[in-house]
Amino acid sequence: MPHVPFFTNPQRDDSSMSSTPIIGVIGGSGLYKLDNLKVERTVNPVTPWGVPSSPITIASLETPTGKVTLAFLARHGLNHSIPPSKVPARANIAALKHLGVKAIVAFSAVGSLKEEVRPGDIVIPDQVIDRTKGIRKSTYFDETMVGHAMFGEPFDVELREFIGPLVKQAIDSFDSHVNPTDMPRLHTEGTLVVMEGPQFSTRAESNMYRLWGGDIINMSAIPESKLAREAELSYALVCTSTDYDAWRVGHAPVTVEEVMKTLHTNAALSKHIAASILSAVHDAVKNGQVGTQAAGAMKYSLMTPHSEVSPAELHRLTYLLPNYFDYPDPATKLVRKITTEDRDDYTGGEKIEQS
Description:
Oligomer: single chain
Order of helices and strands: EEEEHEEEHEEHEHEHHEE
Distance between the termini: 22 Å
Strand content: 15-25%
């Protein structure tokens, strides 16, 4: 029987490929595609952690400075068929990284935990509280290679601060046909609470999150943001508020009908924001203005000598972090040996060679 590799990505060997997408976009609830972009191809990579939640669209945007290429995937699938706890976040992030993406701008619907964050407003959070329950796979280092990613700033500071003014300009230019006093407002910081779901909060839970300092709440940013850090990708989240969750006394708790009504309007704004900012984000990443903090984030975080890690696991990590791992598929050779040559100076690990 022929050997089946851990993962496949034949698109990377396609000589007809256009420029590499260095910007990734992850669409949340209501955002399943982007307008004003020329679709170049659709890829269906198979990663060591499974397949992404949707095919990845490689699209281009013509700008005054040239063509910008980006990669887009829908977090919950093209037909919103994947619940929050089952989103294949490890496959999503790994696939984008392997395609060449260096920075991700993700979009998500959120509930508001503060009166001043109205439905329709945009929030770019700077902190997160993890209230998921361990159901989701939240790390690439859960076998024998131990890695401890720094997460004090869960969203890339450079990217978050760079997109803030761009998002404000996009909001100001958005034709929403609403009263000017009802125009969406931008909040450039805030603490995001990530709950497990799929049910919404109880009123008691919602008030507890407010006491903790939470500003908004969703079900998506964890483990996505943690995995992006482990993959050394710049990651920022643009949140669209749909409701006031369940905390407001004298008001009925949030309903799905209310959320879906606001989602329709918010999706149009999210598409407008994406179309307005991605060119500048691309140029900033390409020129090194954004992304310097993410690059090398795991260099001193990998603790285990490579000689103590299975060849199969080393091969999987090669897919994600080729700067630190360079191990072929162990099943392609019958004989393997361990040498004492250090693979990485910060682990003292040993290299697996083929013979």
